[in-house]
Every structure is written in structure tokens, then in C-alpha cells.
Design goal:
elongated, about 75% helix, mainly alpha
Length: about 500
């Protein structure tokens, strides 16, 4: 047998291996094929190909494994149990850029499913190798490594801390300064996922100088990058006053307000979330947002969009209004109540309705003037109807009840309270009647109106427990009127009169 014939055998074997991995990688890209591939024992066949002498076979085998592991956690588990991770990690440091990208893809595909699988990646020493890849000259390798680190860090603070301890954060901050948009996006997203778990982790990101670089990218034309930048700044600002102040000091106002007018819904949502996370901390930070025109911009944003995009803006208005009378008045003056009422009525999702109810409660809870501003928007009957609707979620019922209580306890605008007298349950009725008992003794015009509109008649029909607060309020109201008027409007009075007529014997 000639030398050529001998080599031909090896060439055929190489071609067969190449065809096999390419076919498997292609098949694995379609989800419907994955269960069949798995049951045919594809994992054990791909594993030795990761150490193949031919680089393209190695890379394609890694790509196929990544696609399989990406499919579900059972297959990701099979990659871990098949001792494939140590081989990948071993090769990460010495192989070419194509293999590095494919290996990082496998690690990402395994780590995304659960904290346990991400922990398996940490155990086999992958973090150190991934961090080395962040220094690679090839942007694609950096991107793949950053993506894998993000999928590990996103699960919990322990895994995030492991990513930090491996030295990833300073290199990720360098990555957001690279010219490639895709790399900037994923590095910003990774910093966001590291920051979200605890103030300490967020502080690590801040100490690496991330805020200034992130803030500079708020006006970048790429929508996907803006989403990640705003998310990262939100995750930093949410933890404490100090961190929120550091974000504000990077001069994000008024620049960030332009994001609320962006055509991309997620940019709007993340922009409003960032403003909310700053506003919630202190009256001073909320005042700074008001001064920058932030409240008016958020109100416009709520009015121009639908669904969950509205949620952070609604909550932001609630936080601002909760801090003080003046800040609540800033929401009222900026015409914040109508859009909040619209959210309450228009939105189908209970959790958005609940947020709008909570925000309205925060606006109206300070003084009679604040309560009146909410009441004249005719929102009280809507809140009451939602509270009494058995289809409303428990959270919505709780929020509407609290909002009603907050507003009613301050509201002295009786025309808005009167319609509620006819429908409110006893636990809400006591607040309504309580307000009438405060106003009627001092207002003769209101007393007259209360009779002519049927309010006094309705109060007589209320069945209150003797000695209860509600009964006290009713007594106070009744004391505002002559006894015969109260008797006249009491239930059964007309029957009593008829009975007297029947029993009356005229004197002839």
C-alpha cells in the first residue's frame, strides 16, 4: 500500500469528522432536532472532537455543544456531567479567536439556565480564563467573554461577587470605551447585572469609574446601547442616596429627559426607571428632578405610551408626591393627575392600575387642597369600584383602599364625596361620613345642599354599630339639623306618619 493510500484513509476520516460536526451544528440550530440528537448520544461523540487536531473541527464541535446547551437545562446539565467544561476552559487560553468565541458561547449557554449551572462554571475555573479573554485584541472575543460573564453574574450576589473577584469590572469599563457598538452594549449590560444585587457590588462598579463613561453614552444614537446604559445607571442609583447622588453628579440631567421621547419603548421605560430610582431616595433629589423639568417630561411620557412602559413613570410621580406637600403640588401643577387617572381606567393589567391608584393616593394625602385636586378629577368612584370589584387582584384592592383612605381623610370637597355615600362599604364609609361631620357644622350652605341632594336621608339609612366611630360621625351630622328634619329623613318615618293618620280620630 503506497504512502498516498495510507494518507487517503486519514483524509477520509478528517472529512467525515468535519461533515459530522458541521451537520450536527446545523441540526442543533433548529430546536425541533435537539431531543433526537440528545437521545442519539451526540454529547459523548462531540466531546473528543473538542480536542481534535483540526481547529475548524474543534470550533464547530464547541458551537454545536453551545447550541445544544442553550436549548434547555437538561442538556446544559449533560455538558457539565460529561466533564466537557474543564476541556473548554483548558483550551480557552491557548486556542485561536474563533475557538475562544465558540467556547465562551458554550459557557454562556450552560450558565444562563440556573445558579447551580453557573456555579459549575465558576468551579471549573472559567472566570479567570474569561477575564483574560476580555483583554483579547479581537472585539468579538471580548464580546463573547463579557456575555458569558453576564449570564453568570445575573443570577445572584454570590456569583456576581465571584465575577468581581476574578477582576472583570475594570476590564468591562474599558470595554464600554471601545469603538464597537456590540461590545459596548454587552459590557454595559454586564455591569448592570453585577450592580443590581447589592450596594457593595454597585460600589465596585462605581469605583472602577463606570458612571462617567456610562453617562456619556446616554445620547448615543444606538437604541440598544442606550437601553443598557440607562439600565446600568438605574441599577447603581437604586441602592442608596450616596450612589444616586454620584449618578446625578455625572450631569445626567437634563440630558436623560430626551430618552423619554425616544422612539424605542425600552429606552423610554429604562429612562423613566432611572429617574424613578433617583427620585425615590430624598426630597432633595426629587426637587432636583422637578427643577430640571423631569416631572413634566415623565407626565408627557405616560400620556404618550401604553402598557408596562408607563409603570416606572407612574411610580416616579408617586415617589415625588410622597416626599412633601410642595413636591406633590408640583405634580398637580404639571397636570399629572389626568394621565394617572387615564392609566387607572385604560390599562387592563391590575399591577399598573394598582401603581396608578398608589400614586394618586400619594398626591392627595397631604392637605385638603391636594385631596380636592384629585377628587375633582372624578377618580374616587373609580377607586371605590375597583376596590369593591371581586375580579380585582388582592394587591389592587389593597392599593385602592389605601388610596381612598389617604384622599378621603383630607378631602373637604363635599360634591366629590356625596356619590360615594350610596355605594361605599362600612370600612370606607366611616372616612366619608367623617369628612361630612367635620365640614357640615361650619358651613350652612353645605348643610342645605346635603339635605336637598339626599345625603342626609342616606346617612339615616346607614346601620352603624352603637358606640362605633361611624355612629359618632352620624350623631355629629344629625346634631347639625333640627330634630324634626332628622326624623323626617329617617327610614320608616312616612309609615309612621300614615299610621298616625289612620289612628287619628278627628274631633267633630
Amino acid at each position: 500500500m503506497s504512502q498516498r493510500q495510507v494518507l487517503q484513509v486519514f483524509e477520509q476520516y478528517q472529512r467525515a469528522r468535519t461533515q459530522f460536526v458541521q451537520a450536527v451544528a446545523e441540526l442543533a440550530s433548529r430546536p425541533q432536532n435537539v431531543p433526537t440528537l440528545h437521545s442519539a448520544g451526540v454529547m459523548s461523540l462531540l466531546r473528543p472532537l473538542l480536542l481534535d487536531v483540526i481547529p475548524t473541527i474543534q470550533q464547530t464541535a464547541a458551537l454545536a455543544l453551545g447550541r445544544l446547551a442553550n436549548y434547555n437545562d437538561d442538556l446544559a446539565e449533560a455538558v457539565v456531567k460529561g466533564d466537557i467544561l474543564p476541556q473548554l476552559v483548558c483550551s480557552l487560553s491557548e486556542q485561536n479567536r474563533f475557538y475562544k468565541k465558540a467556547a465562551a458561547f458554550v459557557l454562556r449557554a450552560v450558565g444562563k439556565h440556573s445558579p447551580q449551572l453557573a456555579q459549575a462554571i465558576v468551579h471549573c475555573g472559567a472566570l479567570e480564563m474569561l477575564v483574560i479573554c476580555l483583554e483579547d485584541f479581537d472585539p468579538g472575543v471580548k464580546e463573547a467573554a463579557s456575555w458569558a460573564l453576564e449570564y453568570i453574574a445575573r443570577h445572584n450576589s454570590e456569583l456576581s461577587q465571584a465575577v468581581v473577584d476574578a477582576g472583570a469590572v475594570p476590564l468591562l469599563v474599558l470595554c464600554i470605551q471601545e469603538p464597537e457598538i456590540a461590545l459596548k452594549r454587552i459590557a454595559a449590560s454586564t455591569l448592570s447585572d453585577i450592580s443590581k444585587h447589592s450596594p457593595e457590588l454597585a460600589q465596585t462598579v462605581v469605583d472602577a469609574g463606570a458612571i462617567a463613561h456610562l453617562a456619556q453614552m446616554i445620547l448615543n444614537p444606538d437604541a440598544k446601547l442606550k437601553r443598557q446604559v440607562l439600565s446600568a445607571l438605574s441599577q447603581i442609583a437604586k441602592h442608596s442616596v450616596d450612589l444616586a447622588e454620584l449618578v446625578v453628579e455625572a450631569e445626567i440631567f437634563p440630558v436623560v429627559l430626551t430618552c423619554l421621547k425616544d422612539s424605542d419603548e425600552y429606552v423610554k421605560k429604562n429612562g423613566a426607571t432611572l429617574i424613578r430610582e433617583i427620585a425615590k431616595h430624598t426630597p432633595e433629589l426629587s426637587q432636583l428632578i422637578v427643577n430640571a423639568g423631569g416631572v413634566a417630561a415623565v407626565i408627557d411620557c405616560i400620556g404618550s405610551c401604553r402598557g408596562t412602559v408607563r409603570l416606572p413613570g407612574i411610580m416616579m410621580l408617586g415617589y415625588v408626591a410622597a416626599h412633601s406637600e410642595n413636591l406633590s403640588m408640583a405634580v398637580i401643577v404639571s397636570k399629572g393627575i389626568p394621565p394617572l387617572c387615564a392609566c387607572l381606567i385604560e390599562e387592563p393589567e391590575d399591577h399598573i392600575k394598582a401603581a396608578a391608584a398608589w400614586a394618586l393616593g400619594q398626591v392627595g394625602r397631604h392637605t385638603p387642597e391636594h385631596a380636592r385636586a384629585v377628587a375633582v378629577a372624578n377618580v374616587l368612584p373609580t377607586l371605590l369600584a375597583m376596590y369593591m370589584d371581586t375580579r380585582s387582584s388582592e394587591d389592587l384592592q389593597m392599593k385602592t383602599k389605601k388610596a381612598l383612605k389617604n384622599i378621603l381623610q383630607k378631602c373637604t370637597y363635599l360634591p366629590a364625596l356625596e356619590p360615594l355615600l350610596h355605594d361605599a362599604p362600612p370600612n370606607i364609609m366611616k372616612y366619608i361620613v367623617g369628612q361630612f361631620s367635620k365640614v357640615l357644622p361650619h358651613d350652612s350652605k353645605a348643610r342645605r345642599l346635603f339635605v336637598t341632594t339626599g345625603g342626609l336621608k342616606k346617612v339615616q339609612e346607614i346601620k352603624a354599630e352603637p358606640g362605633s366611630l361611624l355612629q359618632e360621625y352620624i350623631n355629629t351630622i344629625n346634631n347639625c339639623y333640627p330634630e324634626e328634619i332628622v326624623r323626617y329623613y329617617s327610614p320608616g318615618y312616612s309609615e309612621m306618619l300614615l299610621e298616625r293618620v289612620e289612628n287619628y280620630h278627628p274631633v267633630l
